[in-house]
Specification:
Residues 224-237 have a biased composition (Polar residues). The chain is α/β, with parallel strands linked by helices. The protein has helices spanning 42-60, 76-95, 105-113, 120-130, 140-172, 220-223; strands at residues 2-7, 12-19, 27-35, 64-68, 100-103. A five-stranded mixed β-sheet has the order 3-2-1-4-5, sandwiched between helices.
């Protein structure tokens, strides 16, 4: 596996190429720095960085490109420049169809030194030992670029296995179907207004005031005959009194 490591930066963009596989001795193929002047416009500096990275890609033909992941810093201007240089490196790799891997500084330090809090001197010392160099690469940006390449070579097998496992799980797991759309019940129609006086409405047959209602045949007031009128007492006949 041949990897180009890129430590992005506007003033100094470190680049380094390492070849090898995890578990075996690694070999450095080249290391350097792409420099731009602070007096140059930012757009022109990015063009210079692009040209420098393209030259390294042409010269070494790497299979992968490892770029340091940009993280937040207190100096916003530095973060912006680092992010812009990182984007240029990713663009150069994508243009050639090369896979790009992003590694945080903590990941790189942990992979090379065993501690995610190692300083630049410790990183440079371990890079020198791992690549069997005579002296640590200078400046520190160059050593960081080599450390990025080493980190990717060592982490790539585990990362690839994880990606393959995720891909296999997606292909074997059944597709989750969504439940069919729930249809709404048909619109409930209201009954037509009942006009007064129609069949079944008040005042029709069977309603109060019709046959069977009080005051007509069959009602209690007509069921019994009235008692005969009492004759007044003056109309009664009395026996005559004899004198």
């Amino acid at each position: 596996m041949r990897v180009l490591g890129v430590d992005p930066g506007l003033t100094r963009c470190g680049v380094g190429v390492v070849e090898g596989v995890a578990g075996r001795p690694l070999r450095m193929l080249g290391v350097g720095v792409v420099r731009t002047g602070a007096e140059t416009a930012t757009a022109d500096r990015l063009v210079l960085i692009e040209r420098g990275i393209e030259e390294w890609l042409d010269a070494h033909q790497p299979e992968f490109v490892a770029v340091e992941r940009v993280f937040s810093q207190h100096n916003v201007r530095t973060v912006m420049g680092t992010a812009q240089a990182s984007a240029v490196a990713m663009l150069c790799a994508a243009r050639r169809g090369l896979p790009v891997a992003l590694h945080t500084p903590s990941e790189v330090k942990a992979a090379v030194t065993g501690s995610g809090r190692a300083d630049k001197a410790q990183v440079g010392s371990m890079v020198t030992r791992l690549l069997r160099l005579d002296a640590p690469p200078k400046p520190a940006d160059a050593a960081d670029a080599l450390a990025l390449a080493i980190c990717h070579i060592w982490r790539a097998p585990a990362t690839n296995r994880l990606q393959q496992a995720v891909a296999a799980h997606r292909t074997t797991s059944p597709t989750r179907t969504t439940s069919p759309t729930r249809t709404t019940s048909p619109t409930r129609t209201t009954s037509p207004a009942r006009a007064p006086g129609t069949a079944g409405a008040p005042g029709t047959a069977g309603a109060p005031g019709t046959a069977g209602a009080p005051g007509i045949a069959g009602a209690p007031s007509t069921a019994h005959p009235t008692s005969p009128a009492r004759t007044p007492s003056s109309a009664r006949t009395t026996k005559g009194r004899t004198s």
